Amino acid sequence: MNKLIIILVVILLFGVGSYFIFNQQNQQSSITENEIVIKNFAFTPTALIVKTGTTVIWLNDDPVPHSIKSDTFNSEIFNKGESFQFKFDNTGTYDYTCGPHPTMIGEIIVQD
Question: What is the pTM for the complete model shown?
Answer without folding.
Answer: 0.72
